[in-house]
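User: Sequence in, structure out. Go.
Assistant: Echoing your sequence, followed by the structure tokens.
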Amino acid sequence: MSTILLVLGQITSLQLGAAVAKGAYEQVSPLALAGLRLTIAALVLCAVARPRVRALDARQWRAVVGLGLVLATMNVAYFGALERLPIGVAATLELLGPLALAVGLSRRPGQLSAALLALAGVLLLAAPGASLAAAGVVLGVLAGACRAGYVLLNRQVGAVFSDWTGLALALAVGACALAPVAAVVDGGAVVAHPDALGAGLAVAVLSSLVPYTLDMVVLRRVDARTFGVLLSLTPAVGAAVGFALLDERLSARQLGAIALVVAASAWAVAQSRRRTTEPVRIHTPRAEASDAAAEEDVCPVCGRPAPGSGEQWTLRSRHHSSQGSVEYCATAGGCLVVLVDGEIVKHTA
């Protein structure tokens, strides 16, 4: 399945879960619902993944605990913002974190332009023209900051775990941190309204299990910058869900903002695909070559004659592992080269 479809599935599921959560606030508080969401999601995923806790090393534990604490904070902040703000506005504020991350990680003009275009669209959508609850805005911005941390930490967890063990344990850590507080603060409301457990289950599946699982898959395919820009589709999907389920009408400004973020996402996908097919220039001096040979068009790996520029390499594929960014390249001389974080680790002539 393509990356864009996975991201669309994640966003749609998350927005449907937000709608269910907002409907349950008449019975339980956002804190209680956030606790239910993480606890149920952790129980389900741990039952499926069956993580071996004793087999984890220190690096894996650091990644799991960090992601779990960010998940707990992000859930509380987002559900708190959702209580005080419209779903579209809360989702937009949460999106500011990943978009700011995308801008910060941009290195090429095209990347930066796509990220800034998406950010402009989100900011346009986040200004509804009416006064917003200050507490809701603060919680939304906090959720956005946590979302940026979530993108980075989820990517790290995906790099040190080959299966769903890391995500399952991160959800468990978040549940252990949040559930006791939620039980003390609003446990009585859950007991008084047992049907809230059904809403908690629906929110756990729609807002945690499905999107977090898809996030893990996507972040193993693309970098954090591209992922942050792709998430800019969230306002568009949220607006569509609101129109279909809640009959929410869109203004001309909102339609313009959605057009901006969709264009930015399409641009980001095009940039990502172009980087995997265009030749890349890597200057690797060959110590054993003579000065005269170095001035000729030769392969810098094996020293054989190479057509055109000897330093013109073609990037065949790229992926991320626990060791770093792994690239497979073909040189003009016909050699195959494996690089980790830009350093040659293996080559075949």
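User: And one key feature?
Assistant: The chain is about 65% helix and 10% strand.
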